[in-house]
Amino acid sequence: MTLARSRLERALLAWRGTRGRRRERLAAALDAVLPARAADVAFPAEPARTSRIVVATYNVHKCVGTDGRFDPDRIADVVAELGADVLALQEADRRLGLRNGLLDLERLARTTGLELVPVAMRPLSHGWHGNALFVRGGAVRRIKRVPLPQAEPRGAVLAEIDLPAGRLRVVGAHLGLLKRSRRRQTAALLAALERAEPMPTVMMGDFNEWRPGRPDCPLAELEPLFGPTRQHHPSFPSRRPIFALDRILGWPIGAVEAIAVHDTPLARVASDHLPLKALVDLAVPLPVGTVEADAAARRD
């Protein structure tokens, strides 16, 4: 604690002696100490996780950073920082033409151990409608593509995975910009889980919800199943995060033990979103009955 305090004091002194925007200088000073120490506690090293895994979601903005450069290797380096066992990416493919995937999958597997889940329908794509899933050290049992109603084509991807820590169902999604579209899309996501076999479930992605907590918020439809959706983890824009557009939700409630924004100098420039990661306990007791039945009971 003495070391941390001295580092913080030195950082604050350095900040006071420079010119510039106070908010940015103070944020830089605090980021030098506090987030790293908090992450060490909330996200233990892999040998100490037992039944816990790290999941992460990241809108990579087609690998174009806030400096305007297209740099897939920079995105891969941010992914390596996450240390994730399961990863959901949004905007992982080109938007037009053959919709080619943008990352070097061999390099990613070599540096992180993450392997692409085969959700794509096009031979050169990483994902479906830009949504890609990756897993480290697991076996994929089932895959499902979930069309999401929208003026422009959107979709979500679902996979059921056997991991060394246990079984997991993961849903990766990128919701629309219009509130009425997000309302229909959340209904489609819930319908995809109807009569689902009980297993720990994580739904994550870029939900594009700018004003959570309002009575008419489309994400409220997810709360009977996943619990409160109003999360205070701003991830957009990456240079100065204000909006919590990215979400990680878990079922049963309590499976997600910790959530953190991955805010590093590299992440701030690699994409216009910051990654979000969570610690998930796969040994959490499951309610009796289907996922749908548990949601209905909570709704009543």
TrEMBL record:
- The name under which this protein is listed is Endonuclease/exonuclease/phosphatase family metal-dependent hydrolase
User: Which InterPro entries does the record cross-reference, listed alphabetically?
Assistant: Endo/exonu/phosph_ase_sf (IPR036691), Endo/exonuclease/phosphatase (IPR005135), GPI-anchor_lipid_remodeler (IPR051916)
Q: What would you give as a GO molecular function for this chain, any one?
A: exonuclease activity
Where does the Endonuclease/exonuclease/phosphatase domain lie? 56-273
- Species of origin: Oharaeibacter diazotrophicus
CC annotations in GO: membrane
Is Transcription regulation one of the keywords?
no
Q: Which GO terms describe its biological process?
A: GPI anchor biosynthetic process
Q: Where are the transmembrane segments?
A: none
Recite the UniProt keywords alphabetically: Endonuclease, Exonuclease, Hydrolase, Nuclease
Entry keyword Acetylation: no
Q: Which domain of life is it from?
A: Bacteria
